[in-house]
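Summary for the funding panel

The consortium committed to producing paired sequence-structure records for every protein in the target list. Below we show the first two records in order, beginning with the earlier of the two.
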Amino acid sequence: MQRIVVQTFFMIGIMLVMSCRSEFEKLRISGDSAAMFEAAKKYYEEGEYNRSNILYEMIIPSYRGKSEAEEIAYNFAHGHYLNGSHVLSSHYFKNFATTYTSSPRKEQALFLSAISYYKLSPRHQLDQSDSQAAIDAFQMFINAYPSSEKIAECNGYIDNLRLKMELKAFESGKMYYNTRNYSSAITSLENMLKDFPDSQHSEEARYIIAKSSKDWADNSIYSKKEERFRKTIERCEAYLKRHSDEAHSDEIVTFKTKCEAEIKTIQNG
């Protein structure tokens, strides 16, 4: 008897689901823009964002230029955001802000466009294009709304993204050094220091630059050695100017002394 009751409720549930689905499908192919608009709002309010977005996308052309268009555009972007489709929400929120420049929703749209890019930002080992796009989007928001209560939050997100990009750049430089690609290590880490002059990795970066420079000079053909030893001395001096009392300072002094001795040997033939 209990099994029959359970099966009955199960069948009723399936029938209800099928009924709801068939009603949605009937609406979707009906061509009735007004009915689809009301249904989309209902689905959106109930958190059924897949269905609301399907209907909103279908009726956008019908409502272009009408008073409902702004609500449709915002809910469409927001539905993608709440559904986790951040590639789409970043685009549609930005498009909303560009289209509805006088809308009271514009501030929130610009902010959520930036947040969408932020959510797309991957771990630091991967390509950081989305991180840079998020920084640009937050900066656009800050420029547009300098008095917004969200400014501190935006700056916090920017700091997090820059730390991730900084670590990516630093580890790329270390990887080049560890694989004995000394020229690329130097270029990569010097660029990192230009982009992130206050980096928490600045001491180690300058140490690796100097060490890469010395190793590159040591392993160069004879005609290149003097030039590269002189460049290494400059890089050692750049380290000592900023980090004279830090972990690798004694080793850097030793590098510099050895480079000076090598240059003398080369000059004496």
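The next record, for a separate protein in the list, is shown here:
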Amino acid sequence: MFRKLRLKSFTLIEMLLSMVIAGVLSFVFFGILTDVYKDYFDSKEISSALSDMELALMKIEANLKNRIKNSTSVLKITSSEIESEKLENDFNKSGYTGIEFLKEDVCVKRGMWKEEINNTSFGYSGLIDLNLTEKNGSVYKVFLPFSDFESVKEIASKRAEFWGLEKEIFEKNHEVIVFSGKKGEGDIDEIKIFKIKKVAFNDITQNDILEIEALTHGKERIYEKFFLVNGAWALVFEEGNLSFYFNYYPWLGEKFKDGNKTLLIHNLSFFDFYVKNGVIVFNMCKKVLDKTVCRKKAVF
């Protein structure tokens, strides 16, 4: 009447076979998981390197966009000397690892807020009224419409103090006037640098009046358009590191290593640049794990 139940169980062979299959599946899954993790890690490292290069190129563009174009020269740097050559509209030579340029001081051009007038004062317009210009020996007296050089001096002096430099920016010839040709884009030989000897204000014309004198040699000539410049800038590639040098004054005999330095990016495996029709194209590469990743940017 009662049926006897027989319970089945795994045999030893079945258990061993199950363990082998589980081990194979675990090995395959672990391999896939390792590859996924490695790809994720590699992708993260590559993305970080590309972002670093993109940020460095953006900083280069931001500083070069206000350069006085015909003041730009290229640098070939060795352990014993620094060679400088004018940067032509078309340039593609090897061995040059730096660019040096003068940059318009746009910080002081914007002016500053003044409580007494409850408004922003002028900085400087960048224009001279040539009809009112007077010359006495080597000194020019120039009239500047829509400019407030007291504000210019205050802004530039506070900036100099921040960097630990001397606040007498006009007296020390740290803030100078630069003429760069008739249209502001002449030949490098047309770059003329003038020191500011005196600042005054004409109540009748409501213009600032400057007395300026040439710091550079050669034929003196002033133009309607000028730039205020606070030191030179140099972009230099050294031992895998790309840096900006600033707050140095070539017209006082200083070189870029006399200035302040800020690192843009480190551990580059490659950096160069070339110029086509006046546009500077920068290339940089970085080694990440077993790959080399690169970025390129054109600066007008």
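Regarding this second record: Residues 175 and 230 are 5 Å apart (CA to CA). The chain has a mean pLDDT of 84.
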